[in-house]
Amino acid sequence: MGAALPIGDPAPPDGALPADLAVDPAADLGVYLHVPFCRVRCGYCDFNTYTATELRGARQDTYADTLIREVELARTVLGDAGAARPATTVFFGGGTPTLLPAGDLARMLAAVRDAFGLEAGAEITVEANPDTVTPAVADELAAAGVTRMSVGMQSSVPHVLAALDRTHTPANVGTAVAAARAAGLDVSVDLIYGAPGESLADWEASLETALGLEPDHISAYALIIEEGTKLARQIARGEVPEPDGDLQADMYELADARLAAAGFGWYEVSNWSRGGAAHRSRHNLNYWRGQDWWGFGPGAHSHVAGLRWWNVKHPAAYAQRLAAGESPAAGRERPDAEARLLERVLLECRIRAGLAIADLPPGRREAVAGLIADGLIEGLAAIRGRVVLTLKGRLLADAVVRALTD
């Protein structure tokens, strides 16, 4: 059911922010709405999600009302702290948000609009399983104000989908994309590479199928084996092989080449968009740039002005807290300067805009020359004061971060 929550300080029952919190009113405010329900648990997934048999005391049909209570609580908390401002982005993630009726998602979005307001041109994204998207669903979401749909394709090859425990029908990816397009939505397609039994030819077929859908944005993530998942247990028992790191590197290079040839530019290590900045995920860029966001729902994490907090994990415990008029926050923390620097380097190195060299401690700036010599960061960008990864550097991003922080 997802990784364990962090260990932090207790969060107050009313959710109040510390009185000394220095909020930047000009910082973007993103809103994340977690929908923790799935029909089937994929073997690789460690997100905080639940199938119907795992809910025990929580109901999908009342979930929207429960989450709206947290939105109303947040309006009071942010208002009291002088931190309220219109949301610049809203992201429905999960889980499978489109397992809920489109009307429930519309009510949740309306609650955010009523509580905070939405900036003009706000980006509103809904993640979707292809089997749950119909023209009527896409039209209802668009009418509610949704601007973008992220379709979980993962692969176009049946045996790869089976290895990932994905149950959607491959043909429905095209149906979902067409429905979203007809409704006037931007479309992103999500892919995973490196599944057990997936060949380079399989991956190339998935890439070509994804490009044939003509989306605005493609995310491509290397399969990572998370502790406690079904796939991790299968590997431990020797039933399936571990991902091959060299093959995954070849798959990444193939993806970057194919996407670039099709007019997609990388803007984060695992994300490409066409049309310059117009189709980038502004919500995810908020995370990578350390802006403010409030995460609603069980297990959701939030960040405002350097304060981080996280909600109780199970939907039943989440609902019980809110029914009692209490914040669902389980704990919170204020990372120190060293932790904030590490996180900033880790995140900003991954984006095309890069990291300002001047923001590194003087002793770590000396590592830049060696990273240029090793072909891991762009020399011209470094001359201009930024750490920007090369293609080789994207494959070895963790090594770049270690060099700049150790």
Oligomeric composition of the shown chains: single chain
Radius of gyration: 21 Å
How many strand elements?
Answer: 14
State the CATH class of the largest domain. Alpha Beta
Strand order of the biggest β-sheet: 7-8-6-5-4-3-2-1-9
Largest sheet composition: 9 strands, mixed
Shape: globular
Taking pLDDT < 50 over at least 5 consecutive residues as the criterion, the unreliable ranges are none
Q: Helical segment tally?
A: 16
**Range of helix content:** 25-40%
| Secondary structural class | alpha/beta
Terminal-residue CA separation:
33 Å
CATH architecture of the largest domain: Alpha-Beta Barrel
Q: What is the CATH H-level superfamily of the largest domain?
A: Aldolase class I
Protein name: Heme chaperone HemW
Function: Probably acts as a heme chaperone, transferring heme to an unknown acceptor. Binds one molecule of heme per monomer, possibly covalently. Binds 1 [4Fe-4S] cluster. The cluster is coordinated with 3 cysteines and an exchangeable S-adenosyl-L-methionine.
Main location: cytoplasm
Keywords: 4Fe-4S, Chaperone, Cytoplasm, Heme, Iron, Iron-sulfur, Metal-binding, S-adenosyl-L-methionine
